[in-house]
Design a protein that fits this description.
By secondary structure, the chain is an alpha+beta fold. The protein folds into three domains: about 5-50, 2-Layer Sandwich (Uridine Diphospho-n-acetylenolpyruvylglucosamine Reductase, domain 2); about 55-170, Uridine Diphospho-n-acetylenolpyruvylglucosamine Reductase, domain 3, CATH 3.30.465.10; about 180-290, CO dehydrogenase flavoprotein, C-terminal domain (Enolase-like, domain 1), CATH 3.30.390.50. About 30% of the residues lie in helices and about 25% in strands. The protein has helices at about 10-20, 35-40, 75-80, 85-90, 90-95, 110-115, 125-130, 230-235, 240-250, 265-290; strands at about 5, 25-30, 50, 60, 70, 135-140, 140-145, 150-155, 155-160, 165-170, 180-185, 195-205, 210-220, 225. The strands form four sheets. It has a five-stranded antiparallel β-sheet with strand order 4-5-10-6-7. Helix 8 (about 230-235) runs antiparallel to helix 9 (about 240-250) and helix 9 packs across helix 10 (about 265-290). The termini are far apart.
C-alpha cells in the first residue's frame, strides 16, 4: 500500500477545502469497508484519506411519517434496519442495508458509501432507485442534487467531481398502501456479490387489489444499476397478481445487458431479473397491504 496522509475534519467546509486542495488525489473514508481494500490492493491511490465520520451532517438520520427520509452519507447500515418505522416505510432500503458486507462491518458500512463506490452490483442502489432517491452533493462550487438514477456513470465511476462529496441521500415520504422489497441472488454465502439484484416499490389502491404506481431498479446486469422504466410504467393500473408480476419481470429484462463471468452467464442473469422482479413485487404488495 502506498503511504498516504490522514485527515478527519469536523466541519463540512473543512472537508470540501481539503478535497479541493488535493484535486482528485484525496479519497473519502466513510465506513472504509471498500476504500481501505482498494488502497491496499493498489486499485486506487491517494495522497490523503479524508475521514468524514466526524462531520455531523454526514451522520445525521432524520425521519418521521409525515416527512422524507434523510440519511447522511456516513450513517451506518444498522441504524436503518434497527428502526421499525424505517423498515416499514422503506423496506427495500433496509433489505439492502442488512446485506451490505457482513455482520462484522454493519456498524461501519453505509448506504452512502455503497452508492459512492458505484459498483454495478451495489445492493443499495436498486432500492434507492425504486424509492426515487436523490443524492445531495457539496463541493467548492456549491451544492447540487442528482437523482440516484443518474448518479453512477460506469463501473466504479459516478458524477462526483474532484473536491465534491456526497452529504446525504433523501427519499420521499411514504404514502399509504405503499411498500418495497429488495432481493439478490448469490451462488453461495461465501461469494457476497450479487449475480443479479432487484428492488421494487409499489403503491396499491385502497382495497389492495390494484397497483397504482411502481418503480423497479436492478443491479449486476449492466455497467451501472438501472431503472426499469418500461416495466415500472406497465404496472400502473394493473391487478396485483402473479400474472402481472411475471409480465413486469419480462419487461424488466430489457434493461439487462450483462456479461459472462465466474458468477453467472448472460442468459442466467437475464433469467434472474425476471424471477427477482416477480418475487420482489409480490413481497412489496404484501407489505403494502399493511401500510
Amino acid at each position: 500500500m502506498k503511504d498516504f496522509d490522514y485527515a478527519a475534519p469536523t466541519a463540512l467546509e473543512e472537508a470540501v477545502a481539503l478535497l479541493a486542495q488535493h484535486n482528485g488525489s484525496a479519497k473519502i473514508l466513510a465506513g472504509g469497508t471498500d476504500i481501505i481494500v482498494q488502497l491496499r490492493e493498489g486499485l486506487k491511490d491517494a495522497d490523503v484519506v479524508v475521514d468524514v465520520k466526524k462531520i455531523p451532517e454526514l451522520t445525521e438520520l432524520k425521519y418521521s411519517t409525515e416527512s422524507e427520509l434523510s440519511m447522511g452519507a456516513s450513517v451506518p447500515c444498522y441504524r436503518l434496519y434497527e428502526s421499525p418505522e424505517i423498515v416499514s416505510a422503506y423496506g427495500a432500503v433496509t433489505d439492502s442495508a442488512r446485506i451490505i458486507g457482513g455482520w462484522q462491518i454493519q456498524s461501519r458500512a453505509s448506504v452512502g458509501g455503497n452508492l459512492c463506490n458505484s459498483s454495478p452490483a451495489a445492493d443499495s442502489i436498486p432500492s434507492l432507485i425504486a424509492h426515487h432517491a436523490v443524492a445531495h452533493i457539496v463541493g467548492p462550487n456549491g451544492s447540487r442534487e442528482v437523482p440516484v438514477t443518474e448518479f453512477c456513470t460506469a463501473p466504479g465511476k459516478n458524477v462526483l467531481e474532484p473536491g465534491e462529496l456526497l452529504v446525504k441521500i433523501t427519499l420521499p415520504a411514504p404514502v399509504s398502501k405503499s411498500a418495497s422489497a429488495y432481493l439478490r441472488f448469490i451462488p453461495r454465502n461465501e461469494m457476497d456479490i450479487a449475480v443479479a439484484g432487484v428492488g421494487s416499490w409499489v403503491k396499491l389502491s385502497e382495497d389492495g387489489g390494484t397497483i397504482t404506481d411502481a418503480r423497479i431498479g436492478v443491479c449486476a446486469v449492466s455497467a451501472t444499476p438501472q431503472f426499469a422504466e418500461e416495466a415500472s410504467a406497465f404496472l400502473a393500473g394493473k391487478p396485483a397478481t402473479d400474472e402481472t408480476f411475471a409480465a413486469a419481470g419480462e419487461l424488466a429484462k430489457k434493461v439487462a445487458s450483462p456479461i459472462d463471468d465466474m458468477r453467472g452467464t448472460v442468459e442466467y442473469r437475464i433469467h434472474l431479473i425476471g424471477v427477482l422482479t416477480k418475487r420482489t413485487l409480490n413481497i412489496a404488495c404484501e407489505r403494502a397491504k399493511d401500510n
